[in-house]
């Protein structure tokens, strides 16, 4: 910004997804890392019902007051009959310079909030509408990866409409005797199950359908090495060093519990030392995927490496976590970019993408008198 004016950042967090509390933790860490000599930060939390609270109410929750109590205090002040009730708090942030969403999962990473920012004609950090939506939907992600020739796990999509076509016998014959079931539009291991027989398959599907109407059934990578990489940038993205996540042998995969609740049994190796060719291959796959999906600003991309040293791209995360456990900032730290500088760069890329998009021209041509050709009906 000009004239040494502080940049006014609207930090949005919370949301009505299963990652509501994860978002709150991420927002705390990002807020603490922001240089307050550079930024004025206003806080805005989406409740679990999807209602945006103003700065003062959000700050109360941010500072440790009971969320339920604050919500109870604020809801009577909101005219819920107003169709704009969920976003009325935006009236407080007319002078905002840039939006910084830290909303994981539903409505935050699926392109919804990005569409609102675009409608408001304001800069924001991270990927745009299409890239966010495509990267959040695991099915569309895989379709794009396959089109781009980027290796990922074999899968089928099960919906309520084709459910009867995908019996366990068919799944086993096409994908093998060990598969993972994943809701297409959820994050952080929510609704994910491993199935190895008809009973676990049926039970896993029943639970997964609570979270989405489109379920990916993926061929399992047996005893994989879980590798993550952080990407930063717009048209010329750069990649961090690699990190590894090693979960206890008793855990089937890196689930919600050991991601966010109790990571005491998880080992994070930063940076992880892999064979040079494998490191190069994973880095190239990640950068290729970032470009193919049209991502901007930042992303964490996860991989599974099988016992033969073959990497499979697992999934991208367009608004990765910034909790104390999250690897996105940690991988940049070991790559030479500290937390505060990382936040600066993410914000700079947000402004740069906004400026770039403002160069696009739209011509509006008046139609004048309408001339209709002869209609011939047969």
TrEMBL record:
Its main location: cytoplasm. Keywords: ATP-binding, Cell shape, Cell wall biogenesis/degradation, Cytoplasm, Ligase, Magnesium, Manganese, Metal-binding, Nucleotide-binding, Peptidoglycan synthesis. One of its GO terms (molecular function) is ATP binding. Pathway: Cell wall biogenesis; peptidoglycan biosynthesis. Residues 142-348 form the ATP-grasp domain. It is found in: Cytoplasm. Cell wall formation. SUPFAM superfamilies: Glutathione synthetase ATP-binding domain-like, PreATP-grasp domain. GO terms for cellular component: cytosol. Mg(2+) 1 binds at residues 302, 315. This is D-alanine--D-alanine ligase. It holds the Pfam family Dala_Dala_lig_N. It is an enzyme of class 6 (ligase). Its cofactor is Mg(2+); Mn(2+). The lineage of its organism: Bacteria, Bacillati, Bacillota, Bacilli, Lactobacillales. Mg(2+) 2 binds at residues 315, 317. HAMAP family: Dala_Dala_lig. It catalyses: 2 D-alanine + ATP = D-alanyl-D-alanine + ADP + phosphate + H(+). It comes from the Bacteria.
């Amino acid at each position: 910004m000009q004239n040494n004016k502080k940049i006014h950042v609207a930090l949005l967090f919370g949301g009505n997804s299963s990652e509501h509390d994860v978002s709150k933790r991420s927002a705390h860490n990002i807020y603490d890392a922001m240089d307050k000599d550079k930024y004025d930060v206003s806080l805005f939390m989406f409740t679990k019902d999807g209602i945006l609270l103003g700065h003062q109410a959000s700050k109360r929750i941010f500072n440790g007051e009971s969320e339920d109590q604050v919500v109870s205090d604020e809801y009577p002040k909101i005219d819920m009959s107003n169709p704009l009730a969920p976003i009325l708090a935006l009236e407080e942030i007319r002078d905002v310079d840039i939006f910084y969403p830290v909303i994981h999962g539903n409505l935050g990473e699926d392109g919804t909030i990005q569409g609102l920012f675009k409608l408001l004609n304001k800069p924001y950090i991270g990927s745009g509408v299409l890239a966010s939506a495509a990267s959040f939907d695991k099915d569309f992600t895989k379709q794009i990866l396959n089109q781009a020739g980027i290796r990922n796990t074999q899968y089928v999509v099960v919906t309520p409409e084709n459910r009867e076509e995908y019996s366990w016998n068919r799944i086993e014959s096409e994908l093998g005797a060990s598969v993972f079931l994943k809701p297409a539009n959820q994050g952080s291991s929510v609704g994910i199950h491993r199935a190895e027989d008809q009973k676990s398959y049926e039970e896993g599907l029943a639970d997964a359908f609570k979270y989405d109407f489109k379920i990916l059934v993926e061929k399992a990578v047996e005893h994989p090495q879980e590798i993550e990489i952080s990407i930063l940038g717009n048209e010329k993205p750069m990649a961090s060093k690699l990190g590894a996540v090693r979960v206890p042998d008793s855990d089937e995969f890196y689930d919600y519990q050991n991601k966010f609740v109790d990571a005491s049994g998880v080992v994070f190796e930063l940076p992880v030392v892999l064979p040079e060719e494998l490191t190069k291959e994973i880095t190239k796959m990640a950068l290729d995927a970032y470009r193919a999906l049209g991502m901007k600003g930042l992303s964490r991309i996860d991989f599974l490496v099988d016992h033969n040293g073959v990497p499979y791209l697992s999934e991208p995360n367009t608004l990765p976590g910034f909790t104390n456990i999250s690897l996105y900032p940690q991988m940049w730290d070991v790559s030479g970019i500290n937390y505060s500088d990382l936040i600066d760069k993410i914000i700079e890329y947000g402004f740069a993408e906004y400026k770039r998009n403002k160069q696009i021209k739209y011509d509006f041509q008046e139609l004048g008198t309408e001339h209709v050709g002869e209609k011939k009906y047969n």
